[in-house]
């Protein structure tokens, strides 16, 4: 029996160069009294001065988001702003979008944030939230179209978990690749490989359906077109960044429906301990995962890999699709996302192995295999 796909998306998604300028008009379709969640890079960049004049009258305040939100930080924001706004605008990378999404629903719920968190909470979200507009300035997380808001507590709970509900998909998303102008190559690579991992894991998910395969394959094709030229400072680079932004949006759409796999099953646990860039963590795990796929005896996995490789590289007759894809990604990266000076202790490897999961992988990877992925991705000390 085939799996039923439940696909949730934005009420409207505006895409294209200059689409940010549609934000004031979109605010006219919301209740108004907007609170802006924004990253420092956006507020200090060239686009905010031109936009702020047309928004000032509708903004009740600005919340600057400098890192992944913790339950404690979210509770402070709710205490300060509850009842003072009816619309939330989130402009920035994944952490900023998740912070705005989390606030939009917690402002409509009576309990502290931790009570609603997956893994540790005991109360489901009702689905009520404030009106929500999400505008990514990076192409990786796809948070502007996902059903969850990631919350990270590296100090008290040692957990990285989500607030999750279909209504957490923002009402409106604006995809304007101009907001990525001037982004360092390392950031473009770290975010881009996160988008790839979302699409790739959703494609290989045991819950993937023909609809998910169609959407994820389209996203992976856009990734392949964009990846080699994403950091160029010319028209080709701008077109590539727009393709990657759409690929990221499709990745968010697919992961919300089909789920992710063992890479994110490990990366999420690392995020509970380390403040490492999530996309880079996924990228460093992705390369040894390709090696694991190359040795896989699972017929379904191999069929999907061969089909994908032929779709992405129709002129390349490759007997080993996982290795071909791995080498192509490394050869065409604008920055070596796999290089790192970070280390893990032997005790941390053990802890991460025990806490990690396979999520929605077709294959159930044992603890030894998960430990191998971790130790091949990072040096181990002690």
Automatic annotation (TrEMBL):
InterPro entries: ADH_Fe/GldA, ADH_Fe_C, Alcohol_dehydrogenase_Fe. Keywords: Oxidoreductase. Residues 189-304 form the Fe-containing alcohol dehydrogenase-like C-terminal domain. Residues 12-176 form the Alcohol dehydrogenase iron-type/glycerol dehydrogenase GldA domain. One of its GO terms (molecular function) is alcohol dehydrogenase (NAD+) activity. PANTHER family: ALCOHOL DEHYDROGENASE, ALCOHOL DEHYDROGENASE 4. Belongs to the iron-containing alcohol dehydrogenase family. This is Alcohol dehydrogenase, class IV. It comes from Rosenbergiella nectarea. The lineage of its organism: Bacteria, Pseudomonadati, Pseudomonadota, Gammaproteobacteria, Enterobacterales.
């Amino acid at each position: 029996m085939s799996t039923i796909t439940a696909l949730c998306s934005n009420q409207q998604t505006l895409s294209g160069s200059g689409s940010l300028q549609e934000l004031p008009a979109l605010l006219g379709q919301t209740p108004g009294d907007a609170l802006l969640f924004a990253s420092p890079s956006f507020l200090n960049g060239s686009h905010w001065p031109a936009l702020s004049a047309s928004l000032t009258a509708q903004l009740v305040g600005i919340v600057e988001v400098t890192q992944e939100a913790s339950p404690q930080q979210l509770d402070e924001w709710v205490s300060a702003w509850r009842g003072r706004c009816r619309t939330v605008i989130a402009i920035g990378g994944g952490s900023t979008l998740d912070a705005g999404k989390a606030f939009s629903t917690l402002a409509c719920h009576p309990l502290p944030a931790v009570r609603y968190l997956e893994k540790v909470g005991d109360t489901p979200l009702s689905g009520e939230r404030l009106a929500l507009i999400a505008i990514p300035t990076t192409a990786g997380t796809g948070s502007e179209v996902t059903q969850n808001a990631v919350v990270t507590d590296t100090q008290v709970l040692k957990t990285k978990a989500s607030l999750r509900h279909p209504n957490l998909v923002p009402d409106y998303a604006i995809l304007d690749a101009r907001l990525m102008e001037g982004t360092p190559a390392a950031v473009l690579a770290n975010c881009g490989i996160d988008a790839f991992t979302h699409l790739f894991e959703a494609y290989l998910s045991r819950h993937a359906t023909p609809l998910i395969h169609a959407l994820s394959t389209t996203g992976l094709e856009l990734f392949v077109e964009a990846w080699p030229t994403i950091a160029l400072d010319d028209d080709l680079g701008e077109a590539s960044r727009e393709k990657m932004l759409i690929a990221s949006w499709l990745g968010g759409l697919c992961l919300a429906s089909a789920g992710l796999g063992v890479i994110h099953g490990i990366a999420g646990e690392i995020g509970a301990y380390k403040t490492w860039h999530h996309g880079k963590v996924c990228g460093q795990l992705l390369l040894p995962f390709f090696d694991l796929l190359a040795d896989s005896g699972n017929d379904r996995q191999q069929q999907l890999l061969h089909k994908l490789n032929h779709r992405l590289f129709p002129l390349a007759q490759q007997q080993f699709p996982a290795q071909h894809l791995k080498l192509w990604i490394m050869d065409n990266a604008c920055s070596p996302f796999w290089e790192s000076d970070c280390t893990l202790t032997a005790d941390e490897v053990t802890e991460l192995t025990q806490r990690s999961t396979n999520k929605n992988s077709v294959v159930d990877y044992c603890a030894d295999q998960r430990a191998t992925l971790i130790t091949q991705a990072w040096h181990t000390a002690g």
